[in-house]
Amino acid sequence: MKLGTIERPGGSAVVVQAGEHEVAVLPGFSSVDEVVQTDEATWRAAAAEALRSGQRLPSAELSWLPPVVRPGKILCVALNNSANPDRIMSGPDTPAMFVKPSSSLVGHGKPIVTKPSYGRVHPEPELAVVVGTGGADIAEDDALKHVFGYTIINDITSPTMRDTDTFHYRAIHPSTEEPEGVRYVDSWVSYPARYKGSDTFGPLGPWVATAEDIPDPHALRITCSHDGRVVTDDNTANLRFSVAQVIAFASEYLALEPGDVIAMGTALRRSAKGGAVQNLDLAKVGGSVAVEIEGIGVLSNPVECR
Amino acid sequence: MKLGTIERPGGSAVVVQAGEHEVAVLPGFSSVDEVVQTDEATWRAAAAEALRSGQRLPSAELSWLPPVVRPGKILCVALNNSANPDRIMSGPDTPAMFVKPSSSLVGHGKPIVTKPSYGRVHPEPELAVVVGTGGADIAEDDALKHVFGYTIINDITSPTMRDTDTFHYRAIHPSTEEPEGVRYVDSWVSYPARYKGSDTFGPLGPWVATAEDIPDPHALRITCSHDGRVVTDDNTANLRFSVAQVIAFASEYLALEPGDVIAMGTALRRSAKGGAVQNLDLAKVGGSVAVEIEGIGVLSNPVECR
């Protein structure tokens, strides 16, 4: 089953996909956030009733919100594609993660906005997990039971702001010689709030495909296109750490909450015609970016260069 | 006026400080998040009424929650202390920021939990801003009008996880020679979700002092103590970027929402007796950490080493 959140006069609403060109309105829920918080038997009964006799709307006329409008956190896994491991000169053998704020989310069809001060801006097509049941210290074998469903995120990134917000500095460490002393260690650190979290840097949706629709999240074709041209064509089989591994690892540190979104990392493989998402400077080319994942849908957003 | 959020049987409640040892319960609000969303005249009238005739509780017996329980984002400014600028070898001339998830927050008196897999864990005492009116592209001159109040955050950090989650890698940049080509640029990048955002890494509160109580947020003594020993004794005058500058800069990229928390960066100056917060490995010493800011209060948390 596929669920989404739309804007309507008087407030937002949840819709269920009902065929290729229609959706059914799910009464009593204003966002998928609320569905996730509801007992499964209750919302499934409501969805079945909606598909049987609910109000229908044409898909083409919908104004989409992010399906999860205000997740507690959007946890993003970095450098998680096994297609080119030679890029990593040194780094962890565990998933590396950052947080995007919920204020960066936008729905399908809404503009990705760039400003001159952002510098270069590129798309990153990613599979995203919507957490159903929360938890801490989740075992890898139990991890997929915590998945409510899967959606699409375009993890918009400014490499210019990334470079700007990287510091070469002397970190303070305890002295190895005197108990109260300190020593300075030459270090690099980068801070992702701007380059990953600016407004509209998180297109999400339109659909959440519930978990039973995606028996294997690691066998899905994923593409990113710009104005109809395929820029990257990859498969979630190339993710280095699996959904279950990421859930188990992350929840040892950050308790997962219902509605949390986990972005699994970028599909990096280039298309046959060359090109890479990092080559696509949206601030310069404008146009429209589409991310498609097999079995989930197409997330498409126009670019608005201010 | 000072406002906090407490746990009570049957749900949370907002309290107003009513003298040194007592609080008054503010009826109709379950968290400061809700107060921030409410018309000022309405909540101020309710608070005045609560102080006149509301239920009183002894402060010593309260179970505190973070005053803002579920901020949309906790935006943290890094390396913002002017006390030792010589630490920065290269980096931005603008505030560098990361996001802590709301799941990392804990209230005053609640344990900071460390696990063996976290490595070293140290406290970072910081002034925090609670956003009242949200906005994007806020002018520096208008910025303080967007402040609801000020609170205290202990920006708990694991330098061990920071080192682990730092990558030396080849970033993909567009080729300078062929239009579709790429080139690899030797880069460093670090990801802060674990080292800054693990559960209990965000003690917050207990009080939000509303803005009129803090006419100058840059003239406040701030100390951090461990088991009664002063580890750092600084003043918010040493912040490099001011509250107004940070609000103006951040809101150019990330729209601020009511209830957002902005952590202003660590008070770094050492106490006369030596020592530095980075020397305090909470995972090893346990005990209790207190952060005090003049005019706001004392945030104290025991450490629980698992």
Mean pLDDT across every amino acid position of chain A: 94
Total domains of chain A: 2
Largest sheet of chain A: 11 strands, mixed
Q: Oligomer, anyone?
A: homodimer
Order of helices and strands of chain A: EEEHHEEEEEEEEEHEEHEEEEHEHEE
Kindly report the name of the CATH homologous superfamily of the largest domain in chain A: Fumarylacetoacetase-like, C-terminal domain
Shape of chain A: globular
Shape-level CATH architecture of the largest domain in chain A: Alpha-Beta Complex
Largest interface: A-B, 73 and 74 residues
Spell out the blueprint of helices and strands.
The structure is a homodimer of 306-residue chains.
Chain A: E1 2-8, E2 11-17, E3 22-26, H1 32-36, H2 40-53, E4 56-58, E5 63-65, E6 74-78, E7 88-90, E8 96-100, E9 105-106, E10 112-114, E11 125-131, E12 147-154, H3 159-164, E13 166-174, E14 182-190, H4 193-197, E15 202-203, E16 208-210, E17 221-226, E18 229-235, H5 243-251, E19 261-266, H6 282-285, E20 288-293, E21 297-305
Parallel strand pairs in A: 6-19, 9-15, 10-21
Antiparallel strand pairs in A: 1-2, 1-5, 1-16, 2-3, 3-4, 6-8, 11-12, 11-19, 12-16, 13-14, 17-18, 17-20, 20-21
What does this structure look like?
Two copies of one chain form a homodimer. With 306 residues, chain A is mainly beta. Chain A folds into two domains: 1-65, no CATH class; 68-159 and 192-305, Fumarylacetoacetase-like, C-terminal domain (Fumarylacetoacetate hydrolase, domain 2), CATH 3.90.850. Chain A has six helices and 21 strands. In chain A, the strands form four sheets. In chain A, strands 1, 2, 3, 4, 5, 6, 8, 11, 12, 16 and 19 form an eleven-stranded mixed β-sheet that branches. Chain A has a five-stranded mixed β-sheet with strand order 10-21-20-17-18. The model of chain A has no long low-confidence stretch (mean pLDDT 94). At the A-B interface, strand 6, strand 7, strand 8, helix 3 and strand 13 of A face strand 6, strand 7, strand 8, helix 3 and strand 13 of B. Strand 13 (166-174) of chain A pairs antiparallel with strand 7 of chain B, so a sheet runs across the interface.
